[in-house]
């Protein structure tokens, strides 16, 4: 039987100081021209926590609003507000100071140093968090003076940690010669690990599953950890599992740029369907590098820096319970080595070709979850409305195949598509944000099938010029249970076999 989706969680950390000091657009600009007008004016365009929380797409990400509700709000959304709810159906939006505290919690090599006053204030806040226990409070009990932190930054090339524009701590380098363990790399990886850990904790609370029942974790972000001899050796999955208290789990990392999460979900579904594991978590932390990635374009149009959140997610794939939505891995689209790079070939390989093999039309999929980037972010940067462009290509395929009329293309886009709401954190928008809503929509009977499409730009790694993509279908549970054989039936079959063998042997002896 197919494996099923039992739950999905989504986490955001509002990190405006990390935008300024850790996003690659800003760090590169600082190297090129530290006195640039862009760097001088960026802080004036940062949102405060309340504005971030009340931003409609962020509320969709954590499940307090639906994509359909977001669609009713006129764009642009950055000048619109909704309810300021930190906690959502799927997760939460954490303020930056508390998230810095989480970085300290997930640091197992004592590389994060926080100033006394800041650490105490954060400790008091995190003590009230419903998902955290006394372990984190112990980590935040360390006393470090500001003079010590300044010494680490000035003499040991530690990476400063900022909050409200002030240095409140630092991340030390893990090695003084190995550049894969330099402070800025450790900083980035701890951010990814901390955000991934929070997503897992929300998933555990949401599903109610016992921690000891989780057997395997697949982490599918776009970060890499290792040392000079194996720069991407890993393992974020096991590292986050340790922090979340999954003592019975092991795991590994899956990488595929933006398509990584879809690859990981198919692997998880296969592991469960085959019976290797009963419960697998697929998760991914966020990226500091992509914070403020389109900041220059946003500032040039006098809009806020909208890429100010580190995002993460976690989903639970389990054995078929006869109720939860199934991951139909018999319908898998693949962009192969020989597919080619034309948009038509790419989208065909991921949608129409696998569907036709299963005897389905493009119109048989109720919802497509593609690259669900927030158009508030991408349109000012010149990238257009990414989800809409994908839906138009799928609709155009349906027209070519005679499944809809050309005049019906706008209706196809509206009926089978959605507005985008996800942060542009690479792997985060790639199909994954709709999993939580799809589970609800399928269970409520609103839809029967959804297709999740992940696409990745492998050429960015300079190892191949190839594009990548993979897709799968999630569907209403068939409700069928495999026939099981009872212990009594097994004994009966063994007994009958032994009797047959004995009779056969007796006949041979008589001969």
TrEMBL record:
E.C. no: 1.21.4.-
Name of the featured protein: Glycine/sarcosine/betaine reductase complex component C subunit beta
UniProt gene name: grdC
GO BP terms, alphabetized: fatty acid biosynthetic process
Residues annotated as signal peptide: none
Species name: Enterococcus raffinosus
Keywords associated with the record: Oxidoreductase
Claim: Oxidoreductase is one of the keywords in the record: yes
Residue stretches making up the DUF5940 domain: 346-506
GO MF entries: 3-oxoacyl-[acyl-carrier-protein] synthase activity; oxidoreductase activity
Beta-ketoacyl-[acyl-carrier-protein] synthase III N-terminal domain residues: 253-319
Listed transmembrane segments: none
Domain of life where this protein originates: Bacteria
């Amino acid at each position: 039987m197919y494996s099923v989706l039992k739950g999905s969680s989504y986490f955001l950390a509002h990190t405006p100081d990390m935008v300024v000091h850790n996003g690659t657009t800003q760090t590169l600009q600082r190297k090129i021209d530290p006195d640039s007008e862009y760097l001088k004016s960026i802080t004036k365009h940062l949102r405060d926590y309340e504005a971030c929380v009340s931003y409609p797409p962020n509320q969709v990400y954590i499940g307090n609003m639906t994509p359909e509700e977001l669609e009713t709000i006129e764009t642009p959304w950055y000048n619109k507000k909704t309810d300021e709810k930190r906690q959502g159906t799927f997760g939460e939006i954490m303020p930056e100071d508390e998230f810095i505290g989480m970085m300290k919690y997930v640091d197992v090599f004592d590389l994060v140093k926080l100033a006394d006053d800041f650490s105490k204030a954060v400790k008091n806040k995190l003590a009230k968090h419903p998902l955290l226990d006394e372990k984190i409070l112990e980590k935040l009990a360390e006393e470090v003076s500001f003079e010590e932190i300044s010494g680490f930054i000035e003499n040991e090339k530690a990476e400063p940690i900022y909050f409200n524009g002030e240095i409140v701590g630092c991340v030390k380098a893990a090695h003084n010669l190995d550049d894969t363990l330099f402070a800025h790399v450790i900083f980035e990886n701890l951010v990814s690990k901390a955000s991934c850990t929070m997503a897992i904790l929300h998933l555990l609370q949401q599903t109610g599953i016992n921690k000891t029942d989780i057997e395997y974790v697949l982490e599918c972000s776009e970060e890499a950890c290792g040392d000079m001899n194996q720069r991407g050796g890993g393992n974020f999955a096991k590292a986050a599992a340790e922090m979340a208290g999954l003592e019975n789990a092991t795991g590994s990392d899956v990488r595929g740029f933006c398509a990584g999460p879809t690859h990981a979900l198919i692997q998880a579904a296969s592991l469960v369907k085959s019976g290797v594991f009963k419960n697998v978590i697929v998760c991914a932390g966020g990226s500091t590098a992509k914070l403020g990635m389109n900041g220059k374009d946003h500032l040039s149009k006098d809009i806020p820096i909208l890429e100010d959140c580190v995002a993460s997610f976690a989903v639970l794939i389990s054995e078929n319970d006869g109720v939860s939505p199934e991951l139909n891995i018999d319908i898998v689209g693949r962009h192969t080595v020989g597919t080619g790079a034309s948009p038509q070939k790419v989208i065909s390989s991921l949608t129409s070709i696998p569907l036709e093999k299963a005897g389905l039309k493009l119109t048989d999929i109720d919802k497509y979850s593609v690259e669900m980037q927030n158009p508030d972010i991408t349109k000012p940067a010149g990238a257009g409305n990414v989800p809409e462009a994908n839906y138009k290509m799928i609709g155009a395929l349906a027209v070519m195949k005679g499944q809809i009329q050309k005049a019906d293309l706008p209706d196809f886009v509206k009926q089978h598509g959605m507005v985008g709401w996800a942060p542009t954190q690479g792997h985060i928008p790639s199909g994954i944000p709709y999993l939580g809503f799809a589970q609800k929509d399928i269970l409520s009977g609103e839809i029967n099938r959804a297709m999740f499409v992940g696409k990745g730009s492998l050429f960015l790694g300079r190892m191949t010029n190839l594009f990548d993509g993979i897709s799968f279908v999630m569907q209403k549970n068939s409700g069928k249970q495999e026939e099981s054989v009872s212990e009594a039936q097994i004994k009966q079959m063994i007994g009958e076999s032994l009797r047959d063998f004995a009779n056969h042997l007796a006949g041979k002896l008589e001969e």
